[in-house]
User: Which sequence fits this backbone?
């Protein structure tokens, strides 16, 4: 299962093509729209989120509510395009139109300057339009398909925010996907402990008032994953590495940890490894899950615990200094639009990106021409594991 995304932030539409989804999987536009809506919510978001109410149009690969094995094309219209038709036109336009919304003041922390240098652009809008986090809409759309597939296989994924800037959100060590959904899933801050919500809102409002932004840490958990996805035999088959790469590919994500994560570097080994136990009904399990469900680049059958750190949103209403690329004069960086934080939305992106990698791995490992074939292969595999 592989995919591509395309589309500019203010272009006519965003597109994703997914290939390799098993035939026979029930899939509707509504399945995807639910996830798109989640990405657009969350405390601290404004502006464009109110303009756009994303709706997907499926234009290939699905017939009468079921996938047919051919590439699935997903389209999301940018409703704002009507105000950008000439500026974003594919055909050549008059010079005076080219000057409208031209960007020559690169924003620190964005792709603007380096992208312009790399691709020889005079108008840095060519960079902004594609490097914008608007692209994550399609990662969520693809993830929605992946989650639908995983759900059929009784594999579930959820996320919650564990840090907003300096504010740590308390949550128990043992946390099921169901519990995350019932708590963080109902919170506009995407947090487990609702008693911290009021303080957090005040904190975010203060950051906004100061024209500043905050980042944080998001945790995604995956349940129902059998042992043995990924492999130790080659560097590029290690599933933890694939997940880490996918998470860092999300705009503004700068690091990933599994289980104890960086804390593992500070503890002696006796306080890090998970002891192996065996029982008649469960087979091999671990007495704890400090390694976050991975050993040797493979899932070990425990819950996957992945955390990603998101840097603060780089566009500040209290703009940072930059250099105008035409005049080389110092200038205050342009503000296209910005929010104090996008953590709850970024959590939805992360959850869907992790789901996509797990679904890809499953489709690679097992016969996956049809969903029935895949289900059967997984049942047989789990049976084999239980007899080991
Ligand atoms: C869900 C989400 C929403 C984002 N919203 C904004 C935003 O409103 N303004 C902004 O400047 N950056 C936003 N970003 C981050 C930028 O897209 C990102 O920092 C930038 O493209 C540079 O990429 P890098 O941080 O990965 O180096 C957002 C990121 C995510 C994941």
Assistant:
């Amino acid at each position: 299962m592989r995919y591509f995304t395309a589309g500019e932030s203010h272009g006519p539409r965003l597109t994703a093509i997914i290939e390799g989804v098993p035939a026979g999987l029930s899939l509707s536009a509504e399945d995807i729209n639910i996830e798109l809506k989640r990405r657009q919510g969350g405390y601290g978001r404004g502006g464009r989120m109110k303009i756009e109410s994303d709706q997907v149009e499926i234009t290939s690969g699905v017939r009468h509510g079921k996938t047919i094995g051919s590439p699935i094309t997903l389209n999301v219209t940018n409703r704002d395009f009507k105000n950008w038709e000439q500026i974003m036109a594919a055909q050549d336009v008059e010079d005076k139109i080219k000057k409208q919304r031209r960007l020559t003041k690169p924003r620190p922390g964005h792709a603007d300057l380096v992208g312009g240098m790399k691709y020889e652009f005079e108008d840095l809008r060519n960079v902004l339009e594609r490097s914008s986090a608007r692209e994550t809409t399609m990662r969520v759309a693809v993830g929605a398909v992946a989650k639908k597939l995983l759900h059929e296989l009784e594999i579930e994924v959820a996320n919650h925010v564990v840090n907003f800037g300096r504010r740590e959100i308390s949550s128990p060590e043992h946390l099921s996907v169901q519990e995350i959904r019932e708590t963080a899933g109902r919170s506009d801050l995407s947090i487990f402990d609702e008693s911290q919500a009021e303080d957090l809102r005040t904190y975010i409002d203060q950051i906004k008032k100061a024209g500043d932004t905050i980042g944080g840490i998001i945790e995604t958990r995956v349940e129902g994953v059998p042992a043995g996805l990924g492999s130790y035999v080659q560097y590029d088959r290690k599933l933890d590495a694939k997940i880490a790469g996918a998470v860092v590919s999300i705009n503004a994500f700068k690091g990933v940890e599994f289980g104890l994560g960086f804390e593992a570097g500070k503890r002696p080994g006796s306080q890090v490894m998970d002891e192996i136990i065996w029982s008649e009904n469960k087979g091999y399990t671990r007495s704890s899950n400090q390694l976050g469900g991975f050993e040797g680049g493979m899932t070990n059958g425990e819950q996957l615990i992945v955390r990603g750190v998101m840097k603060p949103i780089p566009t500040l209403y209290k703009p940072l200094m930059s250099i105008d690329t035409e005049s080389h004069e110092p200038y205050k960086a342009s503000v296209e639009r910005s929010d104090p934080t996008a953590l709850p939305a970024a959590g939805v992106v992360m959850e869907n990106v992790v789901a996509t990698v797990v679904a890809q791995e499953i489709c690679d490992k097992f016969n996956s021409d049809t969903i029935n074939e895949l289900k059967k292969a997984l049942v047989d595999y789990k049976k084999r594991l239980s007899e080991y």
In short: The longest strand covers residues 156-164. The chain has a mean pLDDT of 95. Residues 109-111, 131-133, 136, 250-252, 311, 313-315, 337-339, 342, 345-346, 349 surround flavin mononucleotide (CB under 6 Å).
